[in-house]
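Two folds, back to back.
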Amino acid sequence: MNRMITIAALILLAGSMSACTWVKVTPEGEAVRVASADAVGNCERTGKVTVSVKSRVSGVERKPTKVASELAALARNEGALLGGDTVVAETSVSDGRQVFGVYRCNR
């Protein structure tokens, strides 16, 4: 009986963790948009950022959409610190890490 309760608790914990969003966009990051590479042709590149989040929690894989959303939020926050107003994913998500280019498009 104790084993079934433990298993049920782990399943509930895993389900709730996949729904959690730990990363919030800062007020500065709100001014930064996520765009595709073809949208920054006339923009000035100000740098790049590598962002990462946990892709697994307690051995359970998190939803890829949540991981990607949190990575984009972190990139927006970091992009604002580099003086950018646009970020573009330069790599795909791998083990909770992604590289974004930072651009200033609105001068």
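---
second:
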Amino acid sequence: MLSRTADCLYWMARYTERAENTARMLDVNHQTSLLPQPKEFLEQSWKKLLTISKLEDAFLSKYDVVNRENVLDFMIYETGNPSSIVSCLYAARENARVIRGKITSEVWETQNTTWLELQRILEARHQADPSRLLEWVKHRCHLFRGVLYGTMLKNEAFYFINVGTLLERADNTGRILETKYEDQDALKVLKSKKGLDGGTGGEFFDFYHWAALLRSVSAFEIYRQIYSDQVTPKQVAQLLIFNKQMPRSLVCCVNELIPLISEVKNQQSREIERLLGKLKANLDYSDIDEVFEQGLEKFIEVFLERINHIADEFSNAYLIPLATN
């Protein structure tokens, strides 16, 4: 397969996954922001969305105030933001257009229809309900994945698409975990100032903080099925890092990547297999108590460095050199 073709397949999948992840995080934050809460909590919740995507500086260069309206506008519509939903869906559609011969007509039509329908939505953006729009984005991304699995041959094209999806997913889950746990200290300070560091008020904000984290990776109901009790930081981390049955957990993403790399192996892929094997061993032989002793922030930081290094090695081995995506 040509590097250009592999590059388009890979980035079509990454951008689609990124659009879905962004829509999910924005929807959860939007719904949570409608609850009665102090202004400081509200501002903090919108700031951390920018932190997860490393977009604080880009946002502040365009907007003066961090609030719901500005963050939604920046993360949904802003074409100058490469991680906005509009930018991601456009990039996914353009990559799909380039390699139409390698994907089924159903996959192409799904991507193309998503983009055409989005144009109609953009015409009425000022009247659009954010929740309905974000739900629509999630639905279209789910539809893409369903059509992909239902119509594509399980060949090299399919494998490159899935590698892109899993690398993007692992990075997203890691970033959310890192940012939410970093926010713990800030939330404690805010609760103390508001006199909510104990009692039902503090428990209320703790619950919605961790519930929002779980919902942002579609894991709240899964958490309830497994633990059936109070939402606690350690159990949330246990689920999102080590649960092999949780589709968006770190270990699940790594485990699914390994056989995919084997399917597309070439003379340059040995290093990728080695790096993935070491990362899998690290996850398999760690436990949540060890992670918290080490420091969750440090553990996630190292994981993100390693998974992004693997993504760089994959690009060097298979894709267009120095591709700017």
